[in-house]
Design goal:
This protein is of the alpha+beta class and about 290 residues long. The protein has 6 helices and 8 strands, in the order αβαβββββααββαα. The protein is elongated. It holds the Pfam family DUF2242.
């Protein structure tokens, strides 16, 4: 008889061991083992053909257009949040965090890295009780109850990659295409190409000498004429009425001295006296004075 119960006990032990192994094998995989850090394209990033500042500006406008409260703690970082109220006792907040970085050395492309976190809150009520003693009535205490309602954070999770991020990236691409700053820069560059004047051609120089740029020769205006001083005027001629030196009893040098001007130089020679006296002067005037 005792030998008949031995196989049953062995079977029970084997079954318990198998159940234990099955329970261990069904345990969930730790979360840190799910992170692969693959070098392939990340589902949380997308590359745009624009500079990093333009990409960040489009990311900010995409959040603002959907009711998110946006802030820019740094030039290459955009943060945004939006509140949801699914029910009276629950509250949900979605927070965006965007970082823009250059995708190449030329600066013509940039990558936007996006991460969205969902925080869930639940309303919880807390009741408290207190007692008040009245000395007049003795040791009588009256219980007083009070309640306090508060929102408690019960969950926080990063939104997994999928259609949610695809819609956001498409909206960022839309705002990049209609960015007025990029449009104005293209128009300005086209206008510069049309109105830029060509540089003058360098002047030909012998071999081995540096090239020189030719500059237009501006004619020099002629100098104004210098006024020339007027020549000194010749001494005035003696009046024709002066008497001849021979018949005049008075000294001959008196008449030229009176006729010459005061400013005439001393070196000038007196004008020649005419040979004949004027007809208007009486011939006997001199003799009368002498008598």
């Amino acid at each position: 008889m005792p030998y008949r119960f031995r196989p049953l006990s062995v079977l029970c032990a084997a079954a318990s061991i198998a159940a234990a192994l099955a329970a261990c094998s069904s345990a969930p995989t730790p979360l840190y083992q799910q992170e692969q850090f693959d070098a392939a394209a990340s589902p949380y990033a997308r590359t745009f053909h624009a500079k990093s500042d333009a990409t960040c500006e489009a990311a900010r406008r995409a959040l603002l257009s959907q009711g998110y409260v946006s802030s820019s703690p740094r030039p290459d970082t955009i943060d945004g949040s939006k509140n949801f109220q699914p029910s009276n006792d629950s509250h949900v907040v979605i927070s965006f965090h965007v970082v823009c970085a250059e995708a190449n050395t030329e600066g013509t492309s940039s990558t936007a890295y996006v991460n969205a976190v969902q925080d869930r809150y639940t309303l919880k009520k807390t009741s408290t009780s207190a007692s008040v003693g009245l000395s007049i009535l003795g040791s009588v205490s009256l219980p007083i109850g009070s309640g306090d309602d508060s929102m408690v954070k019960v969950a926080s999770e990063t939104i997994p990659a999928g259609v949610f991020y695809e819609r956001y990236f498409n909206l960022v691409d839309h705002f990049l295409k209609i960015d007025p700053a990029r449009h104005d820069r293209k128009v300005a560059k086209a206008a510069e190409k049309e109105h830029v004047a060509p540089l003058p051609e360098p002047a030909p120089t012998p071999q081995g000498e540096p090239m020189k740029m030719t500059t237009p020769v501006v004619p020099t205006p002629a100098a104004p004429p210098v006024p020339v001083a007027a020549p000194a005027s010749a001494p005035a001629a003696a009046p024709a009425s002066a008497p001849a030196a021979a018949p005049v009893v008075a000294p001959a040098s008196k008449a030229p001295a009176e006729a010459a001007p005061a400013s005439a130089p001393a070196a000038t020679t007196p004008a020649p006296t005419p040979n004949t006296a004027p007809a208007s002067e009486p011939a006997g005037s001199t003799t009368g004075d002498a008598s």
